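Box 3.1 A note on notation
Throughout this textbook, protein chains are presented in two layers. The first layer is the amino acid sequence; the second is a token string describing backbone geometry. Keep the layers aligned when reading.
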Amino acid sequence: MNKRRQISLAGTAFTVMVLATACDGSPSAKDQGYDTRPAANSSEAGKGYGSGSGSADGYGGGKGADGMGAAGGKLAVRRTADLGQVVTDDKGFTLYRFDKDTAKPPSSHCDGDCAKAWPPVPAGSASASTGIAASALGEVVRADGSRQLTLGGWPVYRYVKDTAPGDTKGQGVGGTWNALAPDGKKASGKTDEGKQPAAPVSVSDSAGLGRILVDGQGRTLYRFNKDSAWPMKFACTDACLDTWKPAKPVDKSKVRDIPGKLVSTVTRPDGTEQLAVDCWPVYWFTGDSKAGDVNGQGKQGLWFAVDDKGKKVTTMPAP
């Protein structure tokens, strides 16, 4: 009996050693991670993330009384796997520019059938947010006398075939249409400095919460107080996973603005793998409809964003 107990204790000690090794930043098969970012122009990128509300006959291609597209609202910056930073409207729909337009001086050359496929965003209907300079917003008078929003001098449009937030189906159409970068330039798969592609995990400056971690789509990453890092425990299961989606593992060598040693991969009870930060499993919230949203912060007093040191953020966003 004693011998069996000694064997059991030895096995437990070995398990503890393995788990500690996997979470202390040292290499292991799992914490090398995987880069599983969805394609930027895939509707899968929007599933469970505020998708399903747009349509070519509804929001995406909607026209106002003056023939313009829907209001832009508070613009946002979203990170994509293929295009880097792109600008979206307040519903998460990608905004575009047209090579046949000009920025200096601003001039729009998309009218008639073109404007039916590419609804212009009306001037005065949009405001800047984190990552977009208010001074970059302007307007241009179109041929019909209506006023269109400009960004960096370039007239701003949506694309009717983008039917879900996160879609970028307009990118490259006709070799003349491109998603907008925050400075009005063409989104190109590079950061503002033009050096690196979008990272699968990076840091975003949140007006209410400070520097927080986001995934490759710009979604805020959260941790759950009922989970634990040591010993490893997953309390978000079953119905909980309908609202809080486990973040996919990533290649830790490609994360940006945080130490790679904080990033690891953990195995859930159902055998699937999940991204962990500082050994805590992290999730994204289906109630966040666009990049930059922090609607999950403080939910039930149990869910919190994660800062660039891997710690939970307890500050609450301003109302």
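Residues 2-21, 24-66, 190-196 have pLDDT under 50 and may be disordered. The two ends are 62 Å apart (CA to CA).
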